[in-house]
Amino acid sequence: MSQHSENQEKANTGTENKPGRLGSEKRRHLIKGIGISAPLMMTVASRPVLGAQCTPSAWVSGNLSAQAEKFSCGGRSPGYWKTDPARWTGTGYVPGTCRNSRTTGICRSFNSDGTPFHRSAGGVCAGSIFGKRSMMQVLWLRRRHDNYQLGAHIVAALLNAASIPDYGMSQSDVLDMYNQLVNSGSYQPTAGFTMTAEDCVRFIRNTFD
Fold first, then answer.
1. Distance between terminal CA atoms of the chain?
2. DSSP state at residue 123
């Protein structure tokens, strides 16, 4: 990727479209990543992890032999995927058409004709937090409307899984992570370890090169 593209990606990590309020108190509970009983939760924050680990189970377990190596997971950030719809080619997901590209040439507002985020709207993920918004529209949500930017990171992880050979998670793994968060408020990648919504975002960021 050119220096210009890298700078462009870093400059566009914020942003647009406003969703409605969360549909229920349970969803507020989920997005805040709270309510997990203390005896059962071993968060990533309490486990020092040296270097990247490309699967959730390896990341939370902090395998010492793996920590001695430097990993490259090959993942791309939400900023990478939202600033150039052409990058979605071959993923099986549709970014949708641009509503407003402004003067920078980067579209910051998309129509709703891309792949929907939620199954209830014809997409792939459980729940209905983001209504009928497309995956691309979720990528562009401001942080205050997508706490921890969970939705944006799930979209990035899905696109990474669909396009990067040997990415640490399959598309099914990504969907399982999000669906567990929606259904129970936490994600269990392996026995004895529980991840909050915030932990899941931190893990997905860990997979970015």
1. 12
2. S
